[in-house]
């Protein structure tokens, strides 16, 4: 692992805000976020087919990665995350389930994959951990690695549906940070997808949880490459 990755990874926000809480991540999601409901919806939305190459971006402990593999046994599923501890949990989970899944360690905004090398990128609860600049860098990377016509499918915090959902989301902001979550709560993720070059962007569903409104999104990379927005 490069020194740059080690340095950058030392600054990312772990799954529950603190590394010591990583092993509680799975039970917390099951208990609080209707995990089975929203992840099943996300997998169905991605509509995987045999022969597709699919990236689970921010794979965490591998729950979604394994669900993707189960939904399309003939597809090639790759999980990627920057946290070595959660990747160890993901690999152990895959072994226990008798599934052979590749898990790579890399940061979302510096992916070690060739241009146009995936048909789908699926991501759950990653973007709200990233700074505004890193959200944009990550989406440009996703655009780069998707083939023309390839799709991005995301589950993450969205604009609260009412005052109760907004109040509940303060708990997430206190844990994960106000700067990283501000664009989520403002409902700006679709705008960021458009900015990265995606088309056919839309919010497809939303779920009320004990921590706020969790939304599903989809976006498509055009068949003809669109120019990326200037970063200057």
Question: What would you note in describing this structure?
Answer:
The chain has 232 residues and is of the alpha/beta class. Helix content is 40%, strand content 23%. It has a 7-stranded mixed sheet with strand order 3-2-1-4-5-7-6, sandwiched between helices. Strand 2, helix 5 and strand 3 (102-105) form a beta-alpha-beta unit. The longest helix has 14 residues, at 132-145. It is globular, with a radius of gyration of 16 Å. The two termini are 29 Å apart. The model has no long low-confidence stretch (mean pLDDT 89).
Which terms would index this structure?
seven-stranded mixed beta sheet; about 25% strand
Oligomer: single chain
Q: List how many beta strands DSSP finds.
A: 7
Give me the strand/helix succession: HHHEHEHEEHEHHHEE
**Rounded Rg:** 16 Å
Strand content: 15-25%
Q: Which structural class fits the helix and strand makeup?
A: alpha/beta
Strand order of the biggest β-sheet: 3-2-1-4-5-7-6
Task: Write a concise synopsis of the structure shown.
This protein is α/β, with parallel strands linked by helices and 232 residues long. It has 9 helices and 7 strands, in the order H-H-H-E-H-E-H-E-E-H-E-H-H-H-E-E.
How is this fold's topology laid out?
Layout: H1 3-9, H2 25-32, H3 35-46, E1 53-57, H4 63-71, E2 76-81, H5 84-96, E3 102-105, E4 118-124, H6 132-145, E5 146-157, H7 163-176, H8 178-185, H9 189-196, E6 199-209, E7 212-220
Parallel strand pairs: 1-2, 1-4, 2-3, 4-5
Antiparallel strand pairs: 5-7, 6-7
Helix pairs in contact: 3-4, 6-9, 7-8
């Amino acid at each position: 692992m490069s020194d740059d990755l080690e340095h950058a990874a030392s600054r990312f926000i772990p799954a529950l805000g603190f590394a010591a809480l990583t092993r509680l991540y799975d039970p917390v999601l099951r208990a609080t976020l209707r995990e089975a409901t929203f992840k099943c919806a996300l997998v169905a939305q991605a509509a995987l087919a045999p022969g597709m190459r699919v990236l689970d971006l921010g794979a965490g402990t591998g729950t979604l990665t394994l669900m993707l593999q189960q939904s399309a046994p003939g597809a090639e599923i790759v999980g990627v995350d920057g946290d070595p501890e959660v990747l160890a949990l993901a690999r152990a989970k895959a072994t226990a389930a008798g599934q052979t899944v590749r898990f790579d360690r890399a940061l979302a905004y510096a992916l070690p994959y060739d241009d146009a090398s995936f048909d789908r990128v699926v991501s759950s609860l990653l973007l709200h951990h990233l700074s505004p600049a890193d959200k944009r860098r990550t989406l440009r990377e996703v655009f780069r690695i998707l083939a023309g016509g390839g799709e991005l499918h995301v589950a993450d915090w969205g604009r609260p549906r009412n005052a109760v959902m907004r109040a509940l989301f303060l708990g997430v902001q206190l844990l994960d940070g106000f700067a990283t979550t501000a664009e989520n709560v403002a409902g700006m993720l679709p705008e960021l997808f458009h900015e990265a070059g995606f088309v056919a962007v839309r919010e497809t569903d939303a779920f009320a949880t004990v921590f706020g409104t969790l939304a599903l999104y989809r976006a498509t990379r055009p068949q003809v490459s669109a120019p990326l927005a200037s970063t200057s």
